[in-house]
């Protein structure tokens, strides 16, 4: 069982930066691939970034590529999402998720989400 707790959301203006954190429970954090998703009302949850357990592989959705950076600190059991040059369309609830490293498909564990609101 892995518990995930996001933090760092808030209200910012377009062009600002924000860093989200996701703290994970457990002693084998490096064995989990981690991802950030976001969701707005009426839309499907979108995966925007992913990082492998050994940090060698990352993925970004086109909508955030070049602006967002995913990273992790395995010693602190934490994954981060640095969001720069925020746009109003980045407004969403952001979730972190975990799945076993090396396994494709659905994510097994989810956080409760943190709201990010970008005003114009």
Largest sheet: 7 strands, mixed
What proportion strand? over 45%
Helicity range:
under 10%
Give me the Rg, rounded: 13 Å
Total of DSSP H or I helical runs spanning 4+ residues: 0
Number of strands: 11
Alpha-carbon distance between the termini? Answer: 40 Å
Overall, the morphology is globular
Order of secondary-structure elements:
EEEEEEEEEEE
Concise summary:
With 120 residues, this protein is mainly β. Helix content is 0%, strand content 51%. The strands form 2 sheets. Strands 2, 4, 5, 6, 9, 10 and 11 form a 7-stranded mixed beta sheet that branches. Strands 1-3-8-7 form a 4-stranded antiparallel beta sheet, with no helix packed on it.
Overview of this protein structure:
The chain has no helices and eleven strands. By secondary structure, it is an all-beta fold. Strands 2, 4, 5, 6, 9, 10 and 11 form a seven-stranded mixed beta sheet that branches.
């Amino acid at each position: 069982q892995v518990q995930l707790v996001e933090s760092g959301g808030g209200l910012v203006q377009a062009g600002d930066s924000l860093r989200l954190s996701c703290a994970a429970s457990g002693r084998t954090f490096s064995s989990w691939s981690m991802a950030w998703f976001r969701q707005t009302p009426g839309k499907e949850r979108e995966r925007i970034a992913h990082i492998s357990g050994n940090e060698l592989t990352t993925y970004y959705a086109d909508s955030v590529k070049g602006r967002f950076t995913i990273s992790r600190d395995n010693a602190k059991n934490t994954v981060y999402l640095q969001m720069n040059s925020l746009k109003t369309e980045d407004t969403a609830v952001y979730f972190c998720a975990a799945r076993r490293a090396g396994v494709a498909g659905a994510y097994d564990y989810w956080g409760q989400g943190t709201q990010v609101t970008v005003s114009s």
